[in-house]
Amino acid sequence: MKKDKIIILKDGRQLGYTEYGVSDGIPLFVFHGSPGSRLLFDDEDDAAIDLNVRIITVDRPGYGQSDMKQKRTFKDWSFDLSELADHLQIHLFGVAGISGGAPYAIACAEMIPEKLLNVFLVSTPSPINMLRYKKKMNKINRLGFTLSKHSPFLLELLFKAMTYQAKRVNDKQIIEAHRQGVKESVIETEMINDPWDINFSEIEFPIDLWHGEADDAAPIEGAVWISSQLAKAKLYRVKSGHSLFWNTSDRKLMYSEFLRSCKLTGTENNECSSRIDSDVEVFKASLLQDTQL
After folding, report:
1. pLDDT tops 60 at residue 200
2. pLDDT computed for residue 290 by the predictor
3. What is the CATH number of the domain that holds 46?
4. What residue numbers bound the domain in which 256 lies?
């Protein structure tokens, strides 16, 4: 079930989204990285199909098919997401932020906790004014964040080179991300580099962080710091790098945990379908065969 669609928001902006997995599965909105787009998978998400999960990916403003929004913030995203969820008649859902999409998932935990089943951060960045964190970051990412502060026009050239390389290897996600140009990637890098408009101390909703121990794009020290700022956080350390989400076995682990936590959260509502009980039992066996944390 791969469905590529567009809606028009109340303010007139266009929002593009794609659905993967099972149409009547438990809904999980997955926020792409930076840069990135709704086209997370070339064809289908087999892990979502296996685990009866409905994956919904959305182009953030300025990426792919979504119109730009002037002076947008991380918190703004929760309102766009809520409007899309209402359009799809989804009242409760999970959110997972991949890499540069993670701050948006945290913002949802602050702004719309009443709509959430769970929140996952995968390979999250963090405010990078920590000396130890910056030292462990790879040179390309460190350069990108430095340019965003001092020479954004050079960062634009860097993203244009990325797009050129993406076209050479047919990387559809990045090609689609920059369909409108690379300006939004520059803006979002600045957003990640600047202080986040998130009140960590006010977030009571539980958040799970999944992070590769060998991640040099967003070193794990950042995830440790974020988890320390949250009232209810659990950090899963995985023997992986920054591409954690793209490893099918690791992704199945995350989806299985999504189903488990959905079951716990949904015990007093009808948003989680009755088949979760059997699903969880089936996937306990698969967890034993997947990558160990």
Report:
1. yes
2. 41
3. 3.40.50.1820
4. 3-130+196-289
